[in-house]
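ugh finaly. both done.
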Amino acid sequence: MFLLPLLLSALAAQTQSPPDSAHPTQDDFWAGAWARLEAADETVLAALGLEIKARRGFEGTLEAFRARVLTAYTSGPAQASGGALLAPERRVSTDGAPAAFAPGEAWPTARAVVPGAVRARAFADVLAGAEGLADDARLVRRRAAFAAFLEDEAAFRPEPATVIARAMNAEAQATWSAYCVEGIARRSGRYDEADAVLAARLGAVSDPRESLDVLQRRAISAAGAGLDERALDYLGSALARGGTDATQILARGALASGQRDRARRLFRTLLGPGPTGTAPAAPWALRGWGMAQLPAADHR
């Protein structure tokens, strides 16, 4: 009986198909597919579409997920324009998505899947690896991430919005990206993070006008969080530097609290020309100054 296992093994070896060197393994297939997709034109997309249809019986949910992502680009109308791959028209589910993306996989995944944690993680991977790309490719990825962030923020999906915002700020290191982090952090109740990211940006900015803008944003953020003392501190600093937003906020606060003389003085400073010497008074400044002229209501 000891010969039976040997005979069965020999029989199995004889019936197996020899390795096909022309047909890559699944991993090789996907690595090649992502690379071809990145440099796609209509002909490449059509070829990929035929190849993915010819490959049946994907093993496991990961292979099925990758097949859905690739098919999203190769099905329907042509998704390439002038050598640049466009986002697919329909988004696919994230069932079976990998815990970590393979090289070249994050970018097509980020634009093909539905909003949520997987898409946010894919965009974070894309932005983390954007440093070595050409400027135009980097800009395309940054704009796509920003659009995804706005979509998540509008639907108030704070977790994925936060992931994308932090990744954008780490990659761009700009005032606009700091504002993205601050906005979703404040809306999510993470006031310390909102203030910290603006403080870090304030320390990195050299342009006086941009610095003043960040300082005033920091004051508005603190006021929105109900941190009145902190907001007044920032507003005072901005007011000393000629900040019009700070003046408006302090003037409205004075008007609301019945301090009409103070409100008139503050609104009056906003009626003159702007920093260029030619800008007319803002309509809201005129309205505030006009309301400050009215006598206080007699509630007796």
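ok and the 2nd:
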Amino acid sequence: MDLTPQIEAYLLARGDWVKSREICERFGIKDDRKLRAIDDQPGLCSRIAISGNKGFKHISLATTAEWQEHYARERKHNIMALVNLRAKRRLRLNLTRQIQRPQIVCERDTGQTLMKLPGVRPYEMDCPTYMAP
């Protein structure tokens, strides 16, 4: 049974901030976490009320200052969540990306390691003792 309409009516009737404990006791909710969003599911109060240190207040009764504070806090929280998610994605890509190591090329007679330079003609064309990898 969805308690959201009943909780909304109660918040409107009260007209001010209501502690989460009071809402839970009145409606028989065991855990106040159900009032807030969990995973991808909205909580019982997510769409009808703003939340703060004082409890919950219906969005239509919130003052402009209360609404702006709530909006700024939610916006900051969501931006930080996106920033952290992007940082994790970049870290994962960096950790899982296959590192391409340059192939080691050696001169056949001496075993000396040869370094390939970008834009320089391949060494094997000039050296008869070149040893292919």
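summary for the 2nd one i guess: The mean pLDDT is 83.
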